[in-house]
Amino acid sequence: MFRKNEKHRQVGLFGYDYLLGTSYSAFKNTPGYHFHHIIFRQLNEAIFAPLYSNKKSAPNSPINSMVSALLWQQLHNWTFEELERHLQFDVETRMAIGASATFGDVPFSIRTLHLFKNRLVEYEIADKTNLIAKLFDQMTTEQIKSLNLKTNIQRGDSVQLQSNIRKYTRLELLVEVLKRLHKSSSDPERQLHEALFAPYIKEVRMDLCTVFGARN
Q: What pLDDT sits at residue 29?
């Protein structure tokens, strides 16, 4: 069952200002602090609601924290083991993803983060919608408006993050290249090579484990 994360809006008595004391003013100049306010707090969790059931069930882990963690991980090129360590012991990382100032209190487990990634991939296969790209497009549009930027074209690029979410095998990579080649081809070219492309562009719903294999 989908539920928004509102915990970060409740200011506790023992927050980061209390934890860091006189160092808190300097902490406001760190990338993690700005990431928290520009990305984490502006992240529209409702975009990811289709990943969860409408029926009453156990609520999801905080989506804004999980998406922020994936972005923060990609920014630093960390493994999941490194991400987990920073989530537990690094003040800047914990601030960035909206975790409380209480060490040991992590909003989600690494296993839950992997399951969330699998949901993203499964949803994209079934509904042909990349929710990360959709999020980037929305946030880019909002930031352009808030900063009053003048631009005719602005693209929120999630290719790097999504490529990290989906670990292709060599065969999957080949099929993906062929699908993109077909998409970028002109109509005459598609008709000319229709028989060659047919096995790779037909609509088939497959089980996630069958397509990508079991992953940790």
A: 93
